């Protein structure tokens, strides 16, 4: 198709050029232009161009008034007064150059006399890398070659094939850009060792050149068609009994198979001889989608491989899961007799699951009496139950697909933080790039060799202790004292991190807060109540919403100053604790109205202040104040007071406002 397009394009260029010349030259009625030695010249050659007027075609019959002008395209290159003009031209570029001769008379426009095209090119180079192929046993012989550099001239190519008994076939191509020809003949396998010789010759006006002959046999050039009708069968739905089937041309002797998991770039390759359209595959993985392709060849040493067949995609059957689940748990006391156990486990890897996991089986058993046992089937990766706080409990969890279950993971439920001497020391959590936290620790004071493994656990910090927050963990060998946690880590979120040291049926733990990225909180705490207690006040506040904390909080600050005062406020800085939402202040003066507010700090800075509240400490009386801005409102008075006492209170600096 590409050769046809180029041929049509060249023909169109010649037609347009011819029409332009015809329009401009007007059939050379007034004179002639001659070119010597030829209008087709070799690159670098010199030509002589002559322009002459025909009789009585000059300017009013006065030859001295004739001014002949020679143009190269639209650029004037020479002129002469008289009936003729001669010009020598050099350094013409490759391709076609148009020369036009015009006559200029006094007080009149230039008149076109005649013109000529000069074609500059090179002789054909020797065609290289001639090769022939027949696609399929029923195909036809076609040959390709490399033309070499462009001749910039009209060039013909002749392809010749000679065979046994002086048989000769010939095909011509009149496309300047020709590099492919199909003889339209079919070589048959009756004499597979018979020799054939192909040769291509290129000819143009400046010379000719022939390729070296290419000699081949039927087996050398026939490329089989790609195999077709590929299918796969699994005997008894087992991945270990897999057979690949396909169809081939009759003379195929050798096949090569390649296959890979659909998500892989690397192929597994197998060569088989005399397969007769089938081959057993023994190393496929269960529950995996594979891509299969096959190629064929007629001879072990001669000829070429066919193109690869179209891909067959197929999924292998499931097999029973292997491996064991990674199980972890949390304990929470409910009351003096009951505790809540929350179990968590990670999905098996694809290679371990070996199929679609349908459910998980959880078995909970009390070991001391051996009687109490609970079994549960769940499709989730967590399970929560309530059990007595007495007794020794163990749990087993396994995963099941359509072919069977994995081996159960068994763990004993114990107090993970009971052994203080096993607690890891000097735990730290530092940001390690985007969405990563590096946790480091020192071995426990107890003999470090007693530690069998460390477990690093983390979850988003929620002040309310939300048990529904996802739990993450990883296990670390006893010789490691650091872990990079990255799973489910988000920027500007604070994480509660525990490091457990496990030794037999004992465990010790330490905890720390950490974040991968932080900045100053977006808001300060909201003061919701101020109460007076024995000459001091107790400030209560609402926690900052998690999405506004922007990392781990380090401190709260409580600020206060006298109302309408220009002095700097006093402050009290409180270390942040997750469950804390109140704090006493005992340095306020009685009967003075104060303005109070709070801020929060991360390692990156301090938040803007929260809401402002006003409060007036009443001294001996016990007041509870819910104070709106600019008012000190006493709304609850404890005790019975006389009328005189009320009158005295009205004289103090804190205004009394009833409601």
UniProtKB/TrEMBL annotation:
Protein name: Interleukin-12 receptor subunit beta-2
Family: Belongs to the type I cytokine receptor family. Type 2 subfamily.
Superkingdom, natural source: Eukaryota
InterPro entries documented for this protein: FN3_dom, FN3_sf, Hematopoietin_rcpt_Gp130_CS, Ig-like_fold, IgC2-like_lig-bd, Type1_Cytokine_Rcpt_Type2
Species this chain originates from: Pongo abelii (Sumatran orangutan)
One term under GO cellular component: plasma membrane
Molecular function GO labels: cytokine receptor activity
TM spans (from-to): 623-646
Keyword Transferase: no
Primary location group: membrane
The Fibronectin type-III domain, residue ranges: 226-319, 423-520, 521-620
Signal peptide: 1-23
UniProt entry keywords in alphabetical sequence: Disulfide bond, Glycoprotein, Membrane, Phosphoprotein, Receptor, Repeat, Signal, Transmembrane, Transmembrane helix
Membrane topology of the entry: Single-pass type I membrane protein
Compartmental location: Membrane
């Amino acid at each position: 198709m590409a050769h046809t397009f180029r041929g049509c394009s060249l023909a169109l260029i010649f037609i347009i050029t011819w029409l332009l010349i015809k329009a401009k030259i007007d059939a050379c009625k007034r004179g002639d232009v001659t070119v010597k030695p030829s209008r087709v010249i070799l690159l670098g050659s010199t030509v002589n161009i002559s322009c002459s007027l025909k009789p009585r075609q000059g300017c009013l019959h006065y030859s001295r008034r004739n001014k002949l002008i020679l143009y190269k395209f639209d650029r004037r290159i020479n002129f002469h007064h008289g009936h003729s003009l001669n010009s020598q031209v050099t350094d013409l570029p490759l391709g076609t150059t148009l020369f036009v001769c015009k006559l200029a008379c006094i007080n009149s426009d230039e008149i076109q006399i005649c013109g000529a095209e000069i074609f500059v090119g090179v002789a054909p180079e020797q065609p290289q890398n001639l090769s022939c192929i027949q696609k399929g046993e029923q195909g036809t012989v076609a040959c390709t070659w490399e033309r070499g550099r462009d001749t910039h001239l009209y060039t013909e190519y002749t392809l010749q094939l000679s065979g046994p008994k002086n048989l000769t076939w010939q095909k011509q191509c009149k496309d300047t850009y020709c590099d492919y020809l199909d003889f339209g003949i079919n070589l048959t396998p009756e004499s597979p060792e018979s020799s054939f010789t192909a040769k291509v010759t290129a000819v143009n006006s400046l010379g000719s050149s022939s390729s070296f002959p290419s000699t081949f046999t039927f087996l050398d050039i026939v490329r089989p068609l790609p195999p077709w009708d590929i299918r796969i069968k699994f005997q008894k739905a087992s991945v270990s009994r897999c057979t690949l089937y396909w169809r081939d041309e009759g003379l195929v002797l050798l096949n090569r198979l390649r296959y890979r998991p659909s998500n892989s770039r690397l192929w597994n390759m197998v060569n088989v001889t005399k397969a007769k359209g089938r081959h057993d595959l023994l190393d496929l993985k269960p529950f995996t989608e594979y891509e299969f392709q096959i190629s064929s060849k007629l001879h072990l040493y001669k000829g070429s491989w066919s193109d690869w067949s179209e891909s067959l995609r197929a999924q292998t059957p499931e097999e029973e899961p292997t491996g064991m689940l990674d199980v972890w748990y949390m304990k929470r006391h409910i009351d003096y007799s009951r505790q809540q156990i929350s179990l968590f486990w990670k999905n098996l890897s694809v290679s371990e699951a070996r199929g679609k996991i349908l459910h998980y089986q959880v078995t909970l058993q009390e070991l001391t009496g051996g009687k109490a046992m609970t079994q549960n089937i769940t499709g989730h990766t967590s399970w929560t139950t309530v059990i007595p706080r007495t007794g020794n409990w163990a749990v087993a969890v396994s995963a099941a697909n359509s072919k069977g279950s994995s081996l159960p993971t068994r763990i004993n439920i114990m107090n993970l933080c009971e052994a203080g001497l096993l607690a890891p020391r000097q735990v730290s959590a530092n940001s390690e790039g985007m969405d990563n936290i590096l946790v480091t620790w020192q071995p426990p004071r107890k003999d470090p060799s007693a530690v069998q493994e460390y477990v690093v656990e983390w979850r988003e910090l929620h002040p309310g202790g939300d048990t529904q927050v996802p739990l993450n963990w990883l296990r670390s060998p006893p010789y490691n004292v650091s872990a990079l946690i990255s799973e489910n880590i988000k920027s500007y979120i604070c994480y509660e991190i525990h490091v457990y040291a496990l030794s037999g049926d004992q465990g010790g733990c330490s905890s720390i807060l950490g974040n991968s990225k932080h900045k100053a909180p977006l808001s300060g705490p909201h003061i919701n109540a101020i109460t007076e207690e024995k000459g001091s006040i107790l400030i209560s506040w609402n926690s900052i919403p998690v999405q506004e904390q922007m990392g781990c909080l380090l401190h709260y600050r409580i600020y206060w100053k006298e109302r309408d005062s220009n002095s700097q406020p006093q402050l009290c800085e409180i270390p942040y604790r997750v469950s804390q939402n109140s704090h006493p202040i005992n340095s306020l003066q009685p009967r003075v109205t104060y303005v109070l507010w709070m801020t929060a700090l991360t390692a990156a800075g301090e938040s803007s202040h929260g809401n402002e509240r006003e409060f007036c400490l009443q001294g001996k009386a016990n007041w509870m104040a819910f104070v709106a801005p600019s008012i000190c409102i006493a709304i609850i008075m404890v005790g019975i007071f006389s009328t005189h006492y009320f009158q005295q209170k009205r004289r103090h600096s804190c205004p009394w406002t009833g409601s």
